[in-house]
Design a protein that fits this description.
Elements: H1 18-45, H2 56-81, H3 93-103, H4 106-117, E1 124-129, E2 136-141, E3 153-159, H5 166-169, H6 173-182, H7 186-192
Antiparallel strand pairs: 1-2, 1-3
Helix pairs in contact: 1-2
Length: 205
């Protein structure tokens, strides 16, 4: 399996400069390259159908590192996908219904999501959907692979590593979060919802 570096036309976003995006795309490409390199090394070690006993510590370290690099690749793709220069505005009916079912209204959901993104530290703010109940919930993911909830589906992904905002906004993370929402492609967000898991305010987690 060879992963391909995808291209995203995100020129002229509001509050997120082309210079920031150029640096961000290069960082993303590095994750793709690293994921491919690790996958190749792991595949080579498995060429004989098993890992030699003396190679197990190396194999284990490579698979752990792959989780970091692979998640870094995929989360960046989610992030770039849910941005567009024609973004902003209001969520679609499906997302609005799901957010209202869990948080009471969209404004409360957005406040919670923004609050998670504004926390100290580097990582990701991710709105996920529980595939069992259909509920939305917001989560903080550190270092790409730490904090993901098993089985939950990412619906909206915001990069809050420093490279995403320092060049444009310095340490003013709140201003970056405002810029992020001004560029959200709610059509993409809506498409990630799974309608078969209908949210209910009476459903229990």
């Amino acid at each position: 399996m060879t992963y391909k570096t995808r291209t995203f036309d995100l020129r002229s976003l509001r509050g997120i400069s082309d210079e920031t995006l150029e640096l961000h795309f290069k960082l993303y490409a590095g994750y793709v390259e690293s994921a491919n390199r690790l996958t190749e090394r792991i595949g080579t070690m498995l060429d004989h159908g098993h890992v030699d006993r003396e190679e197990i510590p190396v194999y284990s370290e490579l698979t752990r590192r792959l989780g970091y690099e692979y998640n870094g690749m995929v989360l960046h793709e989610y992030y770039f996908e849910n941005l567009t220069r024609q973004g902003g505005g209001s969520p679609g009916d499906g997302f609005r219904a799901a957010a209202t079912a869990r948080f009471g209204d969209v404004e409360t959901w957005q406040g919670d999501f923004a609050g998670i993104g504004a926390m100290r530290g580097v990582g990701w703010a991710i709105c996920c959907q529980d595939p069992r109940s259909g509920h939305l919930s917001n989560h903080w993911v550190t270092l790409h692979e730490q904090g993901n909830v098993a089985g939950f589906r990412p619906i909206l992904v915001m990069d809050v590593w420093e490279h995403a905002f320092l060049l444009d906004h310095g340490s003013d993370r709140a201003r970056y979060i405002t810029a992020f929402f001004a560029n959200v492609d709610w059509r993409v967000v809506e498409s990630r919802l799974r309608a078969e898991a209908a949210p209910s305010r009476d459903a229990r987690v």
